[in-house]
Amino acid sequence: MFPIHHFLYLGALLFCAGLIVVITKKNMIMVLLGIELMLNASNLNLVAFNQFHPGTINGQMFALFVIIVAVCEAAVGLAIVIQVYRYYQTSVPGEVNELSD
Amino acid sequence: MVSFIISEKYSWIVSFLAPFLLLINALSAGIVFYYTWNNQPLAIEWTWFPVGGTSMKTGIYIDNISALMLVVVTLISFLVNLYSVGYMAGDRDIKRYFAMLGFFTFSMLGVVVADNLLIIFIFWELVGFSSYMLIGHWNEKPEAADAAKRAFILNRIGDAGFLIGLMIIWSNTGNFNIAELRSVTTMAPWQTAASLGIFCGIIGKSAQFPLFAWLPDAMEGPTPVSALIHAATMVAAGVFLLARVHFLFTPAALDVVAITGCLTALMGSLAAIAQYDLKKILAYSTISQLGLMVTALGAAAPEAAMLHLFTHAFFKACLFLAAGSVIHTLHQAQHQSHTTFDVQDIRNLGGLRSKLPYTFLIFVLSGSALAGIPLFSGFLSKDAILTSLLAWPGDGFSWRWLIFVGVIITSFLTVLYTFRMIWSVFAGPEKSTTQLTVAEAPAIMRAPMTVLAAASIWLIVSWNPFDFSGWIYSGLFAGMPSHSHLISIFSTVWILGALGVAYTLRERTFHSPLLLNGFYLNRVYKEFVETPVLQVTQLTEQLDKKWIDGLLHFSAYMQLIVAHVTGWFDRAIIDGVVDDAASMAKGVGSFIRTFQSGKIQLYIFWAAFAIIIFIIWTLL
Questions:
Q1: Contact at CB, B601 and A100, closer than 8 angstroms
Q2: Residue A57 and residue B358: Cα distance in Å, rounded?
Q3: Is B604 on the interface with A (CB under 8 A)?
Q4: Between residues B6 and B71, the one the model is more confident about
Q5: What is the distance between the alpha carbons of residues B119 and B117, in angstroms, rounded to a whole number?
Q6: Among the partner residues B597, B605, B608, nearest to A100 by beta-carbon distance
Q7: Of B181-195, B236-250, B454-468, which one has max mean pLDDT?
């Protein structure tokens, strides 16, 4: 196989991309997408580590759990987005700022 | 001492206090005189103020000369004051007049009793100032103000020389005291310079050539002022000073003095012949007589000069007062008859002998003394001068005989102009005064004149009408009096001859513009002194405007530039620093404020950032 650092670099890249999406997108749903991207990047990392330590399936199991959690969290997140939209009439995360003065 | 403290007080209670105080003055002077005549001189000294290592002293020194002058000054001042009560009655500024008269007497007495050249100089200046005030008394007349200014300025020019002389004396002996200066016995070159310096002061004050132009113009003042100042006291101050410091003069300086005196005497008498203003004749006569006194001083005979000063004071003051009486009575008569002619012009007067007999008598008495007619005091003092001049040249022929001849000519001319004056005013037909009813002067004016006329006869000098070595002369003169019969006889003959010549010339008038205008000395001053000085002042004014002001403008401009630079510096840099600090605080503040902005994504960003930093930090 090829060395591990390719996977790790890819994972890092994806993670950064997800982070950037979360930070800079002006749509809350896009923020959720970014979160998903970050989660998937971490999944990639996990599986890659698993690949280079054969004999166990810890990494893959963890990745499975992460996927499930991601799904639940995405559902809840969407529900929150819809409620926020109903209250604030906007889907731009920056405009939901009643906490500041 | 008491005398000048009294006369220092300004008499505001007008006409009565002044003569009374001066009477006390004169009496106390008499007392002082009695005590110090031919006795030990009265010398008191006290320290005035210390300057560095030395201390300036001031004091009083009254010896024979001072005592004599004390009596002369106070007596004549008293008589003039008395006379002024009548003459100046009704004048607007009479208070100031009497105050100034008192002040003048005070300063004159200060000159007389001071023992110290510096104090003499101070009082000298005060005398000059008070004479300025008195000459310009009627200051609404521009000629009077001009004359007063001219008197003071010419006096001051002489005083500049005086000051230089004083400085030379100080730097060479460190002492101003007259008694102590007497101990300087060597004849050093600095003494010539110092004595010439002092003589400059005397030229200014006693109206010698070339600074005599102020005296004829000073006749603008009231006549009693002329009597006091110009006959008796102020102009005599110079002669007095010269007699006081006579020991300081080297023979070379004395020669200069004699030449100046002789020249002045000749010029004065020549000018007097051509004048037609009554007071101006007397003024030039004063100049001439002063020249005689100074000549005597130059011939190393201070006692003859002082004798002549003494007699001259009396008869000249008398002449002035008599002239004043004529002027005064004619003015009164003019007011009543509303005619206008110049009462002082002798061409307008004549034949007043019948209308003013008393004044005529006074004039004759004092005029004879002036002319030096035998049996009068003037004759004796002129004799003294002539005798000393005879003894002066030594053996052989020297230029000093010319001085002698000059003095003889002067006495001839004196007779001429005196006779002319008296004749034109009192004898002959009446010219412009025929319509006027003229009354004699009031008693208060006649009394002083009488006293002074009585002092003009020979008795005041000595018992013998032909011997001048009476009590005054022997009091002043330290050695044996040398008396020359030749001189007495010669001068008698000479004077009587002059009288005869004057009588024959009595109707002739003498025209000479040169003499009339006093040898045009005033013009000379204007051309040679005034105009160059004015040009120099204009030049310096131009210089000042262009360059000095230019320099000032330039430096102001430079300052403006510097101001701009500092302004820029202040604004840009100093303020910039402060502003930047403030804006930095603002920036940081607004930056940190974003942590609380409520923007979710910003929170996430900063959290991620912090985690990255943390990871890097732990990894390194």
A1: no
A2: 167
A3: yes
A4: B71
A5: 5
A6: B597
A7: B236-250
- Please give the span between the terminal C-alpha atoms of chain B, in angstroms, as a whole number: 112
Query: What token pair was written down for B594?
Result: 């974003």
pTM attached to this predicted model: 0.68
Q: Which of residues 567-596 of B touch A (CB under 8 A)?
A: 596
Report yes or no: B102 and B18 within 8 Å, Cβ to Cβ. Answer: yes
The complex's ipTM works out to: 0.83
Measured between beta carbons, the chain A residues lying within 8 angstroms of B602 are 94
Residues 29-68, chain A: which have Cβ within 8 Å of B?
31
B596 contacts on A by Cβ (under 8 Å) = 100-101
Higher-confidence residue of A17 and B440: namely A17
CB pair distance less than 8 Å for B599 and A93: yes
Asked if B601 and A23 come within 8 Å (Cβ–Cβ), the reply is yes
Provide the shortest C-alpha distance from residue B615 to chain A (in Å).
Answer: 14
Per domain, the residue ranges of chain A are 4-89
Which residues of A are less than 8 Å from B605 in CB distance?
Answer: 23
**What amino acid is encoded at B505 in this protein?**
L
Chain B nearest-CA residue for A20: B605
- Give the residue carrying structure tokens 């004057």: B502
Pick the most confident of B510-514, B526-530, B545-549, B581-585: B581-585
The string of pLDDT tens digits covering residues A61-86 is 999 999 999 999 999 999 999 999 99
pLDDT band with cut points at 50, 70 and 90 for residue B7: very low
pLDDT: is B355 or B475 the higher one? B355
User: What's the CA gap between B232 and B124, in Å, rounded?
Assistant: 15
Residue B1 confidence (pLDDT) above 60: no
Instruction: Domain A4-89: state its class.
Output: mainly alpha
Q: What separation in angstroms does the CA of B556 have from each of B401, B542, B562?
A: 70, 20, 10
CA-based nearest distance B570→chain A, Å: 39
Q: Which residue of A has its CA nearest to B597?
A: A100
Q: Tell if the CB–CB gap between B597 and A97 is shorter than 8 Å.
A: yes
Count Cβ atoms below 10 Å from residue B110 Cβ, excluding itself: 19
Query: Helices (DSSP H) in chain A: which residue ranges?
Result: 5-24, 28-51, 58-88
pLDDT confidence of residue B383 = 79
pLDDT of residue A48: 92
Instruction: Give the nearest partner residue to B598 out of A25, A31, A100, using CB atoms.
Output: A100
The alpha carbon of B375 is separated from its chain's Cα centroid by a whole number of angstroms, namely 33
